[in-house]
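To illustrate the input format used throughout this study, we show a single complete record. The first block contains the structure-token representation of the backbone; no residue identities are included at this stage. The design step must infer an amino acid for every position from geometry alone.
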């Protein structure tokens, strides 16, 4: 796995600890990497990498680990509660 792929996976896995799926801009913003990557580079890696496609899924623009698809609904609920406050 290339270093950008590893960085993306590390970033999504870290957010997963908090039950928090990430959007593409959030992956870019919080990317855990020694060298920065552009948003288009991250988007391309997510689209082209078989390993990332195997480990991650995207629902409603939120990226999460495969098997954790429920996190998209949880994030939607959290956003609705935040808006109500």
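Output of the design step:
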């Amino acid at each position: 796995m290339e270093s950008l792929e590893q960085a993306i996976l590390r970033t999504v896995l870290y957010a997963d600890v908090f039950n928090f799926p990430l959007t593409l801009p959030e992956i870019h913003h919080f990317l855990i990497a020694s060298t920065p990557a552009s948003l288009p580079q991250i988007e391309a890696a997510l689209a082209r990498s078989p390993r990332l496609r195997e480990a991650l899924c995207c629902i409603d623009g939120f990226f999460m680990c495969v098997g954790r698809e429920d996190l998209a609904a949880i994030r939607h609920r959290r956003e609705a509660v935040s808006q109500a406050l």
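Structural context for interpreting the output: The two ends are 43 Å apart (CA to CA). The chain has one domain: 3-84.
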